[in-house]
Amino acid sequence: MKEIDPPTSKATRAADAAPHPLARLLALGRPAVMGVLNVTPDSFSDGGRFFDPERAVDHARALVADGADILDIGAESTRPYGGAVAVSAEEEMRRLEPILPAVVALGVPVSIDTMKAEVAAWALDAGAAIANDVWGLQHDRDMARVVAERSVPVIVMHNREAADPAIDIMAEIAAFFSRSLAIAKRAGIARSNIVLDPGIGFGKTPEQSILALSQLEALKSFDLPILVGASRKRFIDSVSPAPPDRRIGGSIASHLIAVAKGAAIVRVHDVAETVQALRVAAAIENAT
Ligand code: HH2
Predict the structure, then answer these.
(1) Is the CB of residue 144 less than 8 Å from the CB of residue 187?
(2) Is 233 a known active-site residue?
(3) 198 within ligand 1 shell (Cβ under 6 A)
(4) Cα of 261 from ligand 1 centre, angstroms
(5) How remote is the CA of residue 79 from the centroid of ligand 1, in Å?
(6) Domains of the chain
(7) How does residue 81 score in pLDDT terms, banded at 50, 70 and 90?
(8) Above 70 in pLDDT, residue 113?
(9) Residue 156: how many other CB atoms lie within 10 Å
(10) For the CA atoms of the chain, what is the radius of gyration?
(11) pLDDT tens-digit map of 3-16
(12) Distance from the CA of 28 to the center of ligand 1, in angstroms?
Protein backbone atom coordinates (compact mmCIF):
# COMPACT_ATOMS: atom_id res chain seq x y z
CA MET A 1 0.00 0.00 0.00
CA LYS A 2 1.26 3.42 0.98
CA GLU A 3 4.49 4.72 2.42
CA ILE A 4 5.35 3.17 5.78
CA ASP A 5 6.98 5.32 8.45
CA PRO A 6 10.13 3.87 10.00
CA PRO A 7 9.24 1.26 12.64
CA THR A 8 9.78 2.46 16.17
CA SER A 9 10.73 -0.83 17.81
CA LYS A 10 11.51 -4.49 17.18
CA ALA A 11 7.95 -5.33 18.23
CA THR A 12 6.60 -2.92 15.61
CA ARG A 13 8.83 -4.48 12.94
CA ALA A 14 7.57 -7.99 13.77
CA ALA A 15 3.94 -6.84 13.63
CA ASP A 16 4.51 -5.07 10.29
CA ALA A 17 5.90 -8.27 8.75
CA ALA A 18 2.53 -10.07 8.66
CA PRO A 19 -0.25 -8.18 6.87
CA HIS A 20 -2.94 -7.00 9.26
CA PRO A 21 -6.39 -8.51 8.54
CA LEU A 22 -7.57 -5.03 7.55
CA ALA A 23 -4.76 -4.72 4.99
CA ARG A 24 -5.81 -8.10 3.59
CA LEU A 25 -9.44 -6.93 3.32
CA LEU A 26 -8.41 -3.70 1.62
CA ALA A 27 -6.37 -5.68 -0.90
CA LEU A 28 -9.40 -7.71 -2.03
CA GLY A 29 -10.35 -5.11 -4.60
CA ARG A 30 -13.91 -4.72 -3.35
CA PRO A 31 -15.37 -2.50 -0.64
CA ALA A 32 -15.30 -3.96 2.87
CA VAL A 33 -18.47 -3.89 4.92
CA MET A 34 -18.23 -2.98 8.60
CA GLY A 35 -21.26 -4.05 10.65
CA VAL A 36 -22.29 -1.86 13.60
CA LEU A 37 -22.78 -3.39 17.02
CA ASN A 38 -23.93 -0.84 19.59
CA VAL A 39 -24.00 -2.15 23.16
CA THR A 40 -25.60 1.03 24.40
CA PRO A 41 -29.02 1.89 25.81
CA ASP A 42 -29.23 5.12 23.80
CA SER A 43 -27.73 4.89 20.29
CA PHE A 44 -29.73 6.96 17.83
CA SER A 45 -30.10 4.14 15.34
CA ASP A 46 -30.73 1.05 17.43
CA GLY A 47 -30.62 2.29 21.02
CA GLY A 48 -31.14 -0.41 23.61
CA ARG A 49 -31.71 -3.29 21.22
CA PHE A 50 -28.38 -5.00 21.85
CA PHE A 51 -27.62 -3.81 25.37
CA ASP A 52 -28.24 -7.35 26.67
CA PRO A 53 -24.99 -9.38 26.20
CA GLU A 54 -26.66 -12.46 24.76
CA ARG A 55 -28.63 -10.43 22.22
CA ALA A 56 -25.52 -8.45 21.35
CA VAL A 57 -23.49 -11.57 20.53
CA ASP A 58 -26.43 -13.07 18.60
CA HIS A 59 -26.65 -9.88 16.58
CA ALA A 60 -22.89 -9.91 15.93
CA ARG A 61 -23.19 -13.49 14.68
CA ALA A 62 -26.07 -12.47 12.39
CA LEU A 63 -24.03 -9.55 11.01
CA VAL A 64 -21.17 -11.93 10.13
CA ALA A 65 -23.61 -14.41 8.55
CA ASP A 66 -25.01 -11.49 6.52
CA GLY A 67 -21.53 -10.75 5.14
CA ALA A 68 -19.88 -8.28 7.52
CA ASP A 69 -16.11 -8.20 6.95
CA ILE A 70 -15.45 -6.21 10.13
CA LEU A 71 -17.49 -5.68 13.30
CA ASP A 72 -17.44 -2.25 14.95
CA ILE A 73 -18.37 -2.48 18.60
CA GLY A 74 -19.18 0.59 20.66
CA ALA A 75 -20.40 0.99 24.23
CA GLU A 76 -20.95 4.74 24.35
CA SER A 77 -23.34 6.51 22.03
CA THR A 78 -21.61 9.21 20.04
CA ARG A 79 -25.01 10.59 19.06
CA PRO A 80 -24.05 13.93 17.64
CA TYR A 81 -27.55 15.41 17.70
CA GLY A 82 -27.80 15.56 21.47
CA GLY A 83 -29.34 13.10 23.85
CA ALA A 84 -26.43 10.72 24.36
CA VAL A 85 -25.28 10.16 27.91
CA ALA A 86 -21.49 10.35 28.41
CA VAL A 87 -20.23 7.27 30.24
CA SER A 88 -17.01 6.61 32.15
CA ALA A 89 -14.24 4.38 30.82
CA GLU A 90 -15.15 1.89 33.56
CA GLU A 91 -18.77 1.77 32.42
CA GLU A 92 -17.74 1.32 28.77
CA MET A 93 -15.50 -1.61 29.72
CA ARG A 94 -18.21 -3.06 31.99
CA ARG A 95 -20.60 -3.08 29.01
CA LEU A 96 -18.01 -4.58 26.66
CA GLU A 97 -16.52 -7.20 28.97
CA PRO A 98 -19.24 -9.88 28.65
CA ILE A 99 -19.44 -9.41 24.87
CA LEU A 100 -16.04 -8.62 23.37
CA PRO A 101 -14.38 -12.08 23.69
CA ALA A 102 -17.37 -13.82 22.05
CA VAL A 103 -17.45 -11.23 19.27
CA VAL A 104 -13.69 -11.57 18.65
CA ALA A 105 -14.17 -15.35 18.50
CA LEU A 106 -16.48 -14.94 15.48
CA GLY A 107 -13.34 -14.60 13.39
CA VAL A 108 -13.68 -11.24 11.65
CA PRO A 109 -11.55 -8.26 12.69
CA VAL A 110 -13.23 -6.26 15.43
CA SER A 111 -12.86 -2.49 15.71
CA ILE A 112 -13.41 -0.73 19.00
CA ASP A 113 -15.48 2.44 18.64
CA THR A 114 -14.35 4.60 21.52
CA MET A 115 -12.93 8.07 22.05
CA LYS A 116 -11.15 6.97 25.23
CA ALA A 117 -7.57 5.69 25.07
CA GLU A 118 -8.04 3.60 28.18
CA VAL A 119 -10.99 1.73 26.66
CA ALA A 120 -9.18 1.32 23.34
CA ALA A 121 -6.10 -0.12 25.07
CA TRP A 122 -8.19 -2.54 27.10
CA ALA A 123 -10.24 -3.69 24.06
CA LEU A 124 -7.18 -4.04 21.79
CA ASP A 125 -5.49 -6.14 24.45
CA ALA A 126 -8.67 -8.24 24.67
CA GLY A 127 -8.59 -9.08 20.95
CA ALA A 128 -9.97 -6.09 19.08
CA ALA A 129 -7.85 -5.42 16.00
CA ILE A 130 -8.66 -1.83 14.99
CA ALA A 131 -9.22 1.43 16.89
CA ASN A 132 -12.10 3.61 15.71
CA ASP A 133 -11.72 7.12 17.11
CA VAL A 134 -14.59 9.49 16.28
CA TRP A 135 -12.32 12.37 17.32
CA GLY A 136 -9.45 11.43 15.00
CA LEU A 137 -6.74 11.19 17.74
CA GLN A 138 -7.52 14.76 18.81
CA HIS A 139 -9.78 14.25 21.85
CA ASP A 140 -7.79 11.90 24.06
CA ARG A 141 -4.12 12.64 23.38
CA ASP A 142 -3.18 9.20 24.72
CA MET A 143 -5.03 7.47 21.89
CA ALA A 144 -2.16 7.89 19.42
CA ARG A 145 0.31 6.29 21.84
CA VAL A 146 -2.06 3.35 22.49
CA VAL A 147 -2.44 2.75 18.74
CA ALA A 148 1.28 3.18 17.98
CA GLU A 149 2.38 0.80 20.72
CA ARG A 150 0.12 -1.93 19.40
CA SER A 151 0.80 -1.34 15.69
CA VAL A 152 -2.90 -1.57 14.86
CA PRO A 153 -4.90 0.33 12.26
CA VAL A 154 -6.84 3.38 13.42
CA ILE A 155 -9.88 5.01 11.87
CA VAL A 156 -9.39 8.76 12.03
CA MET A 157 -12.84 10.33 11.84
CA HIS A 158 -13.51 14.05 11.32
CA ASN A 159 -15.53 15.69 14.05
CA ARG A 160 -16.22 19.12 15.50
CA GLU A 161 -18.11 20.28 18.57
CA ALA A 162 -20.88 22.05 16.65
CA ALA A 163 -21.97 22.40 13.05
CA ASP A 164 -21.26 25.74 11.41
CA PRO A 165 -23.19 26.21 8.17
CA ALA A 166 -20.84 29.05 7.19
CA ILE A 167 -17.65 26.98 6.86
CA ASP A 168 -16.21 25.22 3.83
CA ILE A 169 -16.71 21.70 5.15
CA MET A 170 -14.24 20.01 2.78
CA ALA A 171 -11.48 22.45 3.72
CA GLU A 172 -12.31 21.90 7.40
CA ILE A 173 -12.17 18.11 7.02
CA ALA A 174 -8.84 18.29 5.17
CA ALA A 175 -7.33 20.59 7.83
CA PHE A 176 -8.57 18.26 10.59
CA PHE A 177 -7.02 15.23 8.87
CA SER A 178 -3.72 17.07 8.48
CA ARG A 179 -3.67 17.72 12.25
CA SER A 180 -4.54 14.06 12.97
CA LEU A 181 -1.83 12.83 10.61
CA ALA A 182 0.74 15.04 12.32
CA ILE A 183 -0.29 13.62 15.73
CA ALA A 184 -0.10 10.09 14.31
CA LYS A 185 3.34 10.68 12.83
CA ARG A 186 4.72 12.14 16.07
CA ALA A 187 3.41 9.09 17.97
CA GLY A 188 4.98 6.67 15.49
CA ILE A 189 1.80 5.32 13.89
CA ALA A 190 2.64 3.81 10.49
CA ARG A 191 0.88 5.68 7.69
CA SER A 192 -0.21 2.29 6.35
CA ASN A 193 -2.27 1.89 9.55
CA ILE A 194 -4.47 4.93 8.99
CA VAL A 195 -7.98 5.01 7.55
CA LEU A 196 -9.74 8.37 7.04
CA ASP A 197 -13.45 8.97 7.63
CA PRO A 198 -15.27 12.26 6.86
CA GLY A 199 -17.60 11.68 9.84
CA ILE A 200 -20.98 11.91 8.16
CA GLY A 201 -23.43 13.54 10.59
CA PHE A 202 -20.77 14.70 13.05
CA GLY A 203 -20.40 18.48 13.52
CA LYS A 204 -22.07 19.00 10.16
CA THR A 205 -25.39 20.31 8.96
CA PRO A 206 -27.36 17.78 6.89
CA GLU A 207 -26.36 19.80 3.81
CA GLN A 208 -22.67 19.54 4.76
CA SER A 209 -22.99 15.76 5.25
CA ILE A 210 -24.47 15.53 1.75
CA LEU A 211 -21.70 17.74 0.37
CA ALA A 212 -19.02 15.62 2.07
CA LEU A 213 -20.45 12.55 0.32
CA SER A 214 -20.76 14.37 -2.98
CA GLN A 215 -17.15 15.62 -2.81
CA LEU A 216 -15.63 12.52 -1.24
CA GLU A 217 -13.16 12.23 -4.13
CA ALA A 218 -11.34 15.29 -2.78
CA LEU A 219 -10.14 13.18 0.16
CA LYS A 220 -8.30 10.84 -2.22
CA SER A 221 -5.47 13.38 -2.19
CA PHE A 222 -4.41 11.96 1.20
CA ASP A 223 -3.77 8.62 -0.54
CA LEU A 224 -5.23 6.69 2.39
CA PRO A 225 -8.20 4.30 2.53
CA ILE A 226 -11.52 6.05 3.17
CA LEU A 227 -14.35 4.78 5.38
CA VAL A 228 -17.87 6.17 5.14
CA GLY A 229 -20.60 5.72 7.73
CA ALA A 230 -23.82 7.19 6.41
CA SER A 231 -26.04 4.46 7.80
CA ARG A 232 -29.45 5.68 9.02
CA LYS A 233 -28.13 9.18 9.60
CA ARG A 234 -30.20 12.34 9.97
CA PHE A 235 -29.26 13.90 6.62
CA ILE A 236 -31.31 11.09 5.01
CA ASP A 237 -34.35 12.29 6.95
CA SER A 238 -33.70 15.84 5.72
CA VAL A 239 -34.07 14.66 2.12
CA SER A 240 -36.76 12.03 2.61
CA PRO A 241 -38.35 12.06 6.08
CA ALA A 242 -38.21 8.74 7.92
CA PRO A 243 -37.27 7.47 11.40
CA PRO A 244 -33.77 5.91 11.77
CA ASP A 245 -34.87 2.29 11.21
CA ARG A 246 -36.66 3.26 7.96
CA ARG A 247 -33.62 4.88 6.31
CA ILE A 248 -32.22 1.80 4.58
CA GLY A 249 -32.89 3.14 1.08
CA GLY A 250 -31.09 6.39 1.80
CA SER A 251 -28.25 4.53 3.52
CA ILE A 252 -27.72 2.21 0.56
CA ALA A 253 -27.89 5.05 -1.96
CA SER A 254 -25.25 6.93 0.07
CA HIS A 255 -22.91 3.96 0.38
CA LEU A 256 -23.13 3.03 -3.31
CA ILE A 257 -22.19 6.58 -4.23
CA ALA A 258 -19.46 6.67 -1.56
CA VAL A 259 -17.91 3.51 -2.99
CA ALA A 260 -18.13 4.90 -6.53
CA LYS A 261 -16.27 7.99 -5.26
CA GLY A 262 -13.53 5.98 -3.58
CA ALA A 263 -14.68 4.64 -0.18
CA ALA A 264 -12.93 1.37 0.66
CA ILE A 265 -15.02 0.57 3.75
CA VAL A 266 -18.67 1.30 4.56
CA ARG A 267 -19.95 1.24 8.15
CA VAL A 268 -23.54 0.01 8.19
CA HIS A 269 -26.35 -1.33 10.37
CA ASP A 270 -28.09 -3.19 7.54
CA VAL A 271 -25.35 -5.54 6.40
CA ALA A 272 -27.31 -8.04 4.24
CA GLU A 273 -29.00 -5.31 2.21
CA THR A 274 -25.75 -3.39 1.77
CA VAL A 275 -23.77 -6.45 0.69
CA GLN A 276 -26.45 -7.25 -1.89
CA ALA A 277 -26.51 -3.69 -3.20
CA LEU A 278 -22.71 -3.56 -3.49
CA ARG A 279 -22.54 -6.93 -5.25
CA VAL A 280 -25.24 -6.00 -7.76
CA ALA A 281 -23.67 -2.60 -8.42
CA ALA A 282 -20.28 -4.27 -9.00
CA ALA A 283 -21.82 -6.91 -11.31
CA ILE A 284 -23.45 -4.18 -13.41
CA GLU A 285 -20.31 -2.08 -13.53
CA ASN A 286 -18.10 -5.03 -14.48
CA ALA A 287 -20.48 -6.54 -17.09
CA THR A 288 -18.86 -6.97 -20.46
N1 HH2 B 1 -20.93 6.90 13.23
C2 HH2 B 1 -21.40 6.59 14.46
C3 HH2 B 1 -20.55 6.01 15.41
N4 HH2 B 1 -19.27 5.71 15.13
N5 HH2 B 1 -17.47 5.72 13.60
C6 HH2 B 1 -16.97 6.02 12.40
N7 HH2 B 1 -15.70 5.76 12.11
N8 HH2 B 1 -17.75 6.61 11.42
C9 HH2 B 1 -19.05 6.93 11.65
O10 HH2 B 1 -19.70 7.49 10.73
C11 HH2 B 1 -19.61 6.62 12.93
C12 HH2 B 1 -18.77 6.01 13.90
C13 HH2 B 1 -22.82 6.88 14.77
O14 HH2 B 1 -23.66 5.79 14.48
P15 HH2 B 1 -24.16 4.72 15.55
O16 HH2 B 1 -23.00 3.92 16.07
O17 HH2 B 1 -25.25 3.92 14.99
O18 HH2 B 1 -24.80 5.62 16.69
P19 HH2 B 1 -24.35 5.96 18.16
O20 HH2 B 1 -23.08 6.69 18.10
O21 HH2 B 1 -25.49 6.79 18.67
O22 HH2 B 1 -24.17 4.68 18.91
Answers:
(1) yes
(2) yes
(3) no
(4) 21
(5) 7
(6) 29-286 (3.20.20.20)
(7) low
(8) yes
(9) 33
(10) 18
(11) 444 444 445 555 55
(12) 25
